[in-house]
Amino acid sequence: MDGSVAPAAFDVARVREDFPILGQTRRGKKLVFLDSGASAQKPRAVIEAMKGMMEAAYANVHRGAYHLSEQATEAYEATRISVARFINAADEREIVLTGTGSTQAINLVAHSFGRGVLKPGQAVLVSEMEHHANLVPWQMLRDDHGTELRICRVTDEGELDLDDLEAKLADGKVGLVSIAHMSNVLGTVVPLRRIVEMAHAKGAKVMFDGSQGAVHRKIDVQAIGCDFYVFTAHKLYGPTGLGVLYGRLEVLEQMPPFMGGGDMITEVGLERSLFAPPPLRFEAGTPPIIEAIGLTAAIDYVEAIGMERIEAHEQSLVQHAMRRLTELEGVTLLGRAKDRGGVFALSLDNAHAHDMATLLDRAGICVRAGRHCAEPLHRRFGVESTVRASFGLYTTHEEVDYFADALAKAREFFA
């Protein structure tokens, strides 16, 4: 190593003991999991919380007039309180729990705010670095509703082009800016408060896709000033099948329901129904109850460690990885943003990304290969596909070194 070390207050070896899967080996090699950006591993606390719910406290929520249902409802609603605390929302009613992660949360906003609040002729502004989940719903809105879709450029360094953002906001027709907090390919972290100030000055609302950002940075939605913020449980060391939408209460109250069914109504007649206030208005049907318990446990887990300590550890990893990966011959790294997180997408001369990933797997290294649900961004940088290594709080400096050494050997193999 080159001397960079994780902060002394963060004991990564101790943290790794909380994740049962990390003790595994693959083909006689120690498992090196570098695909946390796709879905993070789960600590024992999350596993046990979900197991305990199923064994001793499970019932449907909000509807049963018996103690077990009341107990389950209390536990489920406690998740809303935990999330509100985690992101410093002003009111727990601003927290909507969705069924399929950030994807459903973004689609909820596209459908409900996009069709119910935005007017035809207004525009939605996204960027070239967006995950498909923050692009396709807006394309669908454009085609169905007549909303204009504007795209903010990304610089050659992989940073959001704020001059282009300002230019595309200038005419005051943008109703919503929806931007990734942190790119799932470039690792770029955007200036949240600056974007909000620019958008609000032109009358636009702002949503941040925090699928990556909420995992690596402490979030304070009141300080940021955004109107919406979304993230997903399974990247935050929690279960799959659960997402979070934060929306300012006064904005949520303007929005019609996303789906119809049970739990989102106050009265139903054969001709018309009355809808519940937020957040239940947006939570039709039986919710992901067990998954919500898992998210509460995941939030408790990372808060017990401390998001500031997690960020400091990961920034140490990022600095070390930048030094190691940029010194490798034949390796091209996408994005050199000044503010970035632990996501590294790269290509290797004379080797396809999937071949690289297969070879790395033989060394026990788990990485993602392909376009990472960001095809336009790959086209922007002129590459067909990349290998992506993404870090979690359990990633070590030694694993970064092992990955860099494996890349060097892969280049020799494919030469």
TrEMBL record:
Q: What class of enzyme is it?
A: transferase
Q: Which UniProt keywords apply?
A: Aminotransferase, Pyridoxal phosphate, Transferase
The domain of life for this entry's organism is: Bacteria
Pfam family for this entry, one: Aminotran_5
Q: Which family does it belong to?
A: Belongs to the class-V pyridoxal-phosphate-dependent aminotransferase family. Csd subfamily.
Function of the molecule = Catalyzes the removal of elemental sulfur and selenium atoms from L-cysteine, L-cystine, L-selenocysteine, and L-selenocystine to produce L-alanine.
In terms of PANTHER family, this protein maps to: CYSTEINE DESULFURASE (PTHR43586), CYSTEINE DESULFURASE 1, CHLOROPLASTIC (PTHR43586:SF8)
Please identify the protein, giving its name as recorded.
Cysteine desulfurase
UniProt source species: Roseomonas elaeocarpi
Q: What is the lineage of its organism?
A: Bacteria, Pseudomonadati, Pseudomonadota, Alphaproteobacteria, Acetobacterales
